[in-house]
Design brief:
The protein has 398 residues and is of the alpha/beta class. The chain folds into 2 domains: 241 residues, Metallo-beta-lactamase, Chain A, CATH 3.60.15.10; 147 residues, Flavodoxin domain (Rossmann fold). 35% of the residues lie in helices and 22% in strands. It is built from 12 helices and 22 strands. It has a 7-stranded mixed β-sheet. The N and C termini lie far apart (54 Å). The structure holds MU-OXO-diiron (FEO). MU-OXO-diiron (FEO) binds next to helix 2.
């Protein structure tokens, strides 16, 4: 099936409704995803990216219904991860000599994945490919999100093919941003940014600045996952500028795990204190052991203050909190404050361990945290409520 994007530009990708995990267990995909491949039927015939290898045979079979594969003149590989290049081995079996345009790093990555010496043509920012009355302009975009990534821009139709950037793991047969549920779309877009692009935020801002300075008219952004932004494509660029600029909402997020409810009681009473102090603050409480880790990362991304709690076990912390802290470490969050809490019995290491990890991850610790020996009693919980109130004061005096 092909879907018209504009004039001679066609979507020939794959909708994947069933995907629930991506990159192994790294990323949850509650709404599936799409692998967007594009066929440009200008004087020259161009294929931009393919699909995940799992759908390679289906992709090739569908593509053959749209074009005699031998008539494809150029293949553009914007990014070599398997979800975009997975059908290339099967395609290149049929058209082995056709040129494959990609970055130098793209060549390394494609060779590393498939061990084939295809007819690679390395390109860099500013290089152009004439495809008839229009041109493709290449723009390297390293670390958006891997070193090999590039965008390309189609003159005449004013389309930016942005690969992973501006994408979402969001499956829809409707394919265009004006035809889908906006709340779902932006929830998936911010989750994608928070979990994948946060560490590269400075590069996101730089790349957007560079693209804007080229003064290229922009009608459509064709991503490699999720919807095509044809209605006001600048809206997602504007969102990326906000998200890449140490983004915060008026939110405090409390994440804990608990053995015998003591640490849960602390979490909920801190939340009570926050609510009593200022009902306009969004306060959210999650048990890490039964909440999706990528949803937690998205909530952290939105927060001004993050509270993390675990009881001490075996002189350490509970597994769910340990895993989350490790995930946080790689994301390089900016401008976030943090606070740790937890119960303990015979040893009281958990709060210190959480504090050390959050500090190493660049969070600004608000205090030494709350340690409660055994279960919190009524008096302790009253003090915890007061701590919640104080957190609001600290947040508002910043
Ligand atoms: Fe969608 Fe980096 O792969």
């Amino acid at each position: 099936m092909k879907i018209n994007v504009k004039n001679n530009v066609w979507w020939v990708g794959k909708t994947d409704w069933e995907l629930r995990k991506f990159h192994g267990d790294e990323l949850s995909t509650h709404h599936g995803t799409t692998y967007n491949s594009y066929l440009l039927l200008e004087e020259k015939k161009v294929l931009i990216d393919t699909v995940w290898s799992k759908y390679s045979a289906e992709f090739i079979s569908n593509l053959e219904k749209e074009i005699d594969l031998k008539k494809i003149d150029y293949i553009i590989s914007c990014h070599a991860e398997n979800d975009h290049s997975g059908a290339m081995p099967a395609l290149m079996e049929i058209i082995p000599d056709k040129p494959v345009y990609c970055t130098e790093n793209g060549i390394k990555s494609l060779k590393g994945h498939y061990h084939k010496d295809w007819n690679f043509v390395p390109v860099k920012t500013g290089d152009k490919l004439n495809i008839g009355s229009k041109e493709l302009i290449f723009i390297q975009a390293p670390m958006l999100h891997w070193p090999d990534t590039m965008f390309c821009y189609l003159t005449g139709d004013n389309i930016l093919f942005s690969n992973d950037a501006f994408g979402q793991h969001y499956c829809s047969e409707n394919l265009f941003n004006d035809l889908v549920d906006h709340e779902e779309l932006f929830n998936e877009a911010i989750k994608y940014f928070a979990n994948i692009l946060t560490p590269f935020s400075p590069l996101v801002l730089k790349k957007i600045e560079e693209f804007v300075s080229l003064n290229l008219p922009l009608d459509i952004i064709c991503t490699s996952h999720g919807v095509i932004w044809r209605d006001n494509p600048m809206q997602i660029i504007q969102k990326y500028i906000e998200w890449a600029s140490a983004y915060q909402q008026n939110q405090i997020t409390i994440i804990y795990d608990t053995m015998w409810n003591g640490t849960r009681l602390i979490a909920e009473n801190i939340a009570k204190g926050i609510r009593l102090s200022d009902e306009n603050i969004i306060v959210k409480v999650f048990n890490a052991s039964n909440t999706d880790k990528n949803d937690l990362i998205t909530e952290i991304f939105k927060s001004k203050i993050v509270l993390i709690g675990s009881p001490t076990i075996n002189k350490g912390i509970l597994y769910s909190i340990g895993g989350l802290l490790e995930f946080i470490k790689g994301l390089n969050f900016k401008n976030k404050k943090a606070f740790a809490f937890g119960c303990y019995g015979w040893h009281s290491e958990s709060v210190d361990i959480i504090n050390a990890s959050l500090k190493a991850s660049g969070f600004d610790l608000l205090s030494e945290g709350i340690k409660v020996n055994w279960e919190p009693d009524e008096n302790t919980l009253k003090q915890v409520v007061e701590t919640g109130k104080k957190l609001v004061t600290l947040m508002q005096t910043e």
